[in-house]
Specification:
mainly alpha
Length: 140
């Protein structure tokens, strides 16, 4: 049973990250577009993707909490786990900031440039690298 829970956690995490990687790229294209029609289409894509990502966030956290609960005696003392949970909190904040920017872009009130969103898009990549290294190597 443990391995099934772990597999589901990883599957939903990959799905969530796919959205976290793609949504800010849509933001870049919205900010680069001169056409109101293209912007409207991209904003619709961003809305659908954001709504699609939300259940993957919830399921990733659900199965992660279940895994932690099954191993709590070990994980409560593991420094790498606390670091990984800090990254998770930051990533959840990033997810909701994507929702904030999506709403701003949809209402044509976003003051951020396409260059900002290019850099903003790199944050989940760095978090993914760090989280995988922590989970696999368990350095402390």
């Amino acid at each position: 049973m443990y391995l099934w829970i772990k597999a589901l956690h990883i599957i939903f995490m990959v799905c969530w990250f796919a959205g976290l990687f793609y949504l800010p790229r849509i933001f870049v294209n919205i900010q680069l577009s001169e056409s109101a029609e293209v912007k409207a289409h991209l904003n619709q894509m961003a809305l659908k993707l954001y709504r699609f990502m939300a259940p993957f966030l919830v399921l990733t956290v659900f199965f992660g909490v279940w895994l932690a609960w099954l191993n709590w005696d070990y994980l409560a003392r593991a420094g790498w786990f606390h670091a990984k949970m800090t990254l998770l909190v930051l990533l959840i904040g990033y997810h909701f900031s994507c929702g904030y920017y999506r709403r701003q872009l949809a209402n044509n009130r976003c003051q951020k440039s396409h260059l900002f969103f290019r850099f903003f898009n790199e944050a989940p990549v760095l978090v993914l690298f760090a989280a995988v290294i922590l989970a696999v190597l368990k350095p402390f």
